Structures are given as C-alpha cells and as structure tokens.
C-alpha cells in the first residue's frame, strides 16, 4: 500500500480513535488525583470544598460513586446489557454521598482511586465496536459515559480545593466542556468566549452578540460551568459593558 494513501476509517474505528484520546486524558487526570490523595488528611476531608454546602468528603464520595457507576455502565455496555446508572436513582446517589462524606481520609483515598482505576480498566476493555453500545446513562452510548467521567474527574479535582487549579483542564477537555455546557446559554443570545483579548475561541447560542472576556480560557470555561474563575470575567455588547448572561441549569 502506498504510505501516502489515506485510509478511511469506519465509524466504529473513528469512535475508537476519539475514545482513546479521552482515555489518555482520563489517565493523566487520575495521576493528578493520586498526587492529591497521597497527601489527604482527615482535616482535609472535613474542610469545605469549592462547592457550596459540600465538604471535600462530599466531593470525594461523589467521585467514588460516579466512578463506580460509570465503570458499571461500561462493563455492561460491552456485554450489551442495560443497567441503571445509580442504584436507587438520584435519591440513592444523594444518600450514598451523605453516608460516605464523613469517612476517614484513608477510606476516601482508597475508594476514589479504586473507582478511577475501575473506569480505566473498563475503558481499556472496549473494542472499536463497543463505543457506540447503548447504556442507560441518559440513554446515550458508551462514548457519552467516558465523556461524563472525563468531565466529572476534571471538574471535581478543582472543586476539592487541594492545590489543583483549572489549568489541569487540557485544551481538549476545555473544548468538550464548552460543547457540553452550551445549552446553559440563554435563548436569544450569542455568547462569544474571548480569552486573552484576542479573537473569540468559542461561540455559543444564537441571537444578539455578547462577548465574554477573560485573560485565560480556563476562566471562561469555569464561568460557564458555574465555578469561580481565578480571574475577572466580564461581558460587553457593542463595545459597552453589560452584565454577564444569566446561565441556565446544568445540562
């Protein structure tokens, strides 16, 4: 075969290529999580996180729970079986977080890391034909489950407020978060996200143009995700300062 010949990928192969890129970034983020967990103390666990009303223990219990649930979805998807994401639905998920939040640091570290590694094992087992297998995560395929864990791990690493900042979000994760969070933009507004005073990097919605400025792209995505940016985020319409658009609920 001519080495310069372009080989067309099947849809399954294309999904596999995209999925493997997500897996690589998930593994990188898990390494960051490990660095956090080896230093975790009981005092850290009991202290507030960046999420209102949640301690770091709540965030860690949620990470362990959502990781285990994501892994289960992927394991069953590979076998072409459908199972609920959380046992007991959203109430079961909330009860598990409350029950686990006060555990000692050693338990949180063990459970969060075990869940993260279980997800990676489940992802590694997926073949090209498995990425589009159905799941009960929002009735979407296994690819969506991988993306969900990618988001959860990246965002909650920052929410823990244990020395990990938004710069841990890779360019690929930033792009994915913006795409996922685009439905938060209110109707009738076209939001241009403009980092560093240059050209807009992302445009979301449809309607009257509002430019949202920040020095760093990560701050723009943090604002879109309902998190506290590390620097100022401002908005302008037709060159005049305006209030930031009021964002809708998490998709």
TrEMBL record:
Any one GO MF annotation of this record: metal ion binding
Region Disordered, residue ranges: 229-251
InterPro entries given in the database record: DinB/YfiT-like, Maleyloyr_isom, MDMPI_metal-binding
Domain of life: Bacteria
Domain Mycothiol-dependent maleylpyruvate isomerase metal-binding: 30-160
Keywords tagged on the record: Isomerase
Name this polypeptide is given: Maleylpyruvate isomerase
Organism expressing this protein natively: Cellulomonas cellasea
Classification lineage: Bacteria, Bacillati, Actinomycetota, Actinomycetes, Micrococcales
